């Protein structure tokens, strides 16, 4: 509570200063909405007065006496966040407030003040302060190489993080020019900025192509709320006021956005990136949106091709059979692709199958004729395990049954009612189950799942597995965010399947139907590379 109060100090102080100015100078109450001349005066005074005075004051606060009594509080946050910008003592806020008021006062004294200028300058000032403390590099590395003079006009989060780390350099407010003039500019600032940005600017070797789940989950990304994204996703109360803003962004993304980078990590010296198709879960169930989604996925694959990416792994609904045949559409349309397109479901099937206890003789499966359901059923019947395949389509059931060896076909049984599974304690769920349907399971049943979203656990006398997931190898670096509701370092099995495809250097595309013969091969390859089941 004390920390929150200290962070509110500058807001309260700015309000008090504005109110005092309005009472002391009644003419301020009649300012025009906007005056362009005032903007020029404020900009000139900011550069000529606010920036050098802040630089001098900031260096003064780093003197032994003032630092220990005042400025040490601001540096007490080991990892800067946007809130760190406002985490300071009243004396520091007073100095900063007065320096911020100088350009506005100068513009008003020249008769060029305006209400718009006051709001624009104050909000821009606070935004740049928060940006400098956000600890996420926002500026492209190539920007400063192309336009070197910008290095002295605007600081970056990396630039100011160096100040918080060493406390002996990079004292400026927003313009590194004054550090250069004062001899306090850290020479490694721009090289470190380039390295911090490298995960965004450099070409990756592996891409996991995801999509947004829903409006709430759209805020679970590092560039929106880094701290929130570093924990498994769950709906939190503080998200509710932000929901309307996130909804507005959804419409903007739907209308204008292209595939964008969410996050990245390094594994075995190679860059892995997570990209997002700018579509939300519900879009995939709109008939008129199908072509647009496939166009976005195709553009992402072709972009990866141009960048030299080795493997693109399709996530969740991006590989839906009804949408694009599990990626087959793109491979058939572009037969000369060098980048390998992968759905990763071979490893997903392997994870589910390896969760089934040894000694199991019978399972009941919904979603049995889906891509994953088919592969799981064919694998289990080879192991002489009886599979009750819940489906109303005799044609689809018989098609799968004929794929099995003649001696194994007897282990595949079509059922059309949930009552058939009353005595079976192993349910594999590939299609949503209502509470009423779950009631047919006997006490002690375990529900294995590959349905998205996962079913809700209504039965307290049964157990529920989570969606198939695996833990990345221990040498993975830069895992700063969580993949949806999984803990950091854990990814969905289809993501891990794509990683295995890349690490093994497989030359084939993994699209369409799952090759049952490769389930054990991929599983062993995953374990060999240190990718472990959760």
Automatic annotation (TrEMBL):
InterPro entries: CER1-like_C, Fatty_acid_hydroxylase, NAD(P)-bd_dom_sf, Sterol_Desaturase_Related. It is found in: Endoplasmic reticulum membrane. GO terms for cellular component: endoplasmic reticulum membrane. Its EC number is 4.1.99.5. One of its GO terms (molecular function) is iron ion binding. Residues 363-533 form the Very-long-chain aldehyde decarbonylase CER1-like C-terminal domain. Keywords: Endoplasmic reticulum, Lyase, Membrane, NADP, Transmembrane, Transmembrane helix. PANTHER family: STEROL DESATURASE (PTHR11863). This is aldehyde oxygenase (deformylating). It comes from Aegilops tauschii subsp. strangulata.
